[in-house]
Amino acid sequence: MMDAQLIGGALQGFGCDKDVLIDILTQRSSAQRIMIAEAYGGLYGKNLLEDLRENLDGHFKEVMVGLMYSPPAFDAHELWHAMKGAGTDENCLIDILASRTSSDIFQLKEAYLLQYGNNLDQDIYSETSGHFRDALINLAQGVREEGYADPGMAAQDAMVLWEACQRRTGEHKNLMQMILCNKGYQQLWMVFQEFQNISGQDIAAAIEECYDGYFQQLLLAIVSCVRDKPSYFAYRLYSAIHDFGFHNKTIIRTIVARSEIDLLTIRQRYKERYGKSLYHDIKVNLFIWSYCFSISVSA
């Protein structure tokens, strides 16, 4: 109740006390923020999410609004906006669908239908194409196997992947994506090891050599997430900061979505891999990002 009152005060009158919003919303869990929104509605008869949208602007608004969604609802929000209007943000589709668990995907698809009245599979089908589309739709089924790994099957799957890299036909691309999209992480660990034994080549290097475009990027994202998901997101943050002119949407999406999952580990991987803290690189590139996230991503 106190948090709701403080936020209400921060949003009143001319301007907005951003410090109050930062201090409260970045320090609470997603479940606590939902409770704050309910208390805010009871106190003021208003929707907190809508008030944040109306009173804030720019990337600060995107961050504060993003924090108010539940994790599945935030994923749904990002996917919807990635496919809404002219053009498609393929990298957003890859980041989300390549990294989420089967349970995550089930929940985000429900949220997508509830929030937008659309079927996620149908939207993916209409907004993407080719084998990239087939792989995304496969991932969106949320049927990745879990549990016991079968060494014998791993050797067979590795041979299929090797043949797919050699022949590169449409049929073999389908076999490639079906294995990578449907097999469990434990199983894929063994498949990748068997692939190395059979071919003398790392699976990621083989994919880079044999395929291109967003299909290649999606397959590589899956391989990276199987091996070490925090490292994948550390790479995505580094690329967003250094390679793409400080790509704000990727930075917002990654930090908000992973804040209660593995952001601490992502920070560690970032520093190990790139020699500087995530906080440092964000601060150097854009001061406001340091200000907004100093609590959650400071080194």
Features:
299 residues, mainly alpha, 19 helices, 0% strand
Percent helix among the residues? over 70%
Q: Profile the largest sheet.
A: none
Class per helix and strand makeup: mainly alpha
The DSSP helix count reads: 19
Straight-line N-to-C gap: 31 Å
Strand content: under 5%
Query: Could you give the order of the helices and strands?
Result: HHHHHHHHHHHHHHHHHHH
Backbone shape:
elongated
- Number-wise, the strands total 0
User: Averaging pLDDT over every residue, what do you get?
Assistant: 91
Low-confidence stretches: 288-292
Cα-based radius of gyration, to the nearest Å? 21 Å
Question: Strands, helices and their partners?
Answer:
Elements: H1 2-11, H2 18-25, H3 30-44, H4 48-55, H5 58-67, H6 71-83, H7 90-97, H8 102-116, H9 120-127, H10 130-140, H11 151-167, H12 170-182, H13 185-199, H14 203-210, H15 213-242, H16 248-258, H17 263-274, H18 278-285, H19 287-297
Helix pairs in contact: 1-2, 1-3, 4-5, 5-16, 6-7, 6-8, 7-15, 9-10, 10-12, 10-15, 11-12, 11-13, 14-15, 15-16, 15-17, 18-19
How would you portray this structure in words?
The protein has 299 residues and is mostly helical. 77% of the residues lie in helices and 0% in strands. The chain has 19 helices and no strands. Helix 4 (48-55) packs antiparallel against helix 5 and helix 6 (71-83) runs antiparallel to helix 7 (90-97). The longest helix is centred in the C-terminal third of the chain and has 30 residues, at 213-242. The chain is elongated. Mean pLDDT is 91; it is low at 288-292.
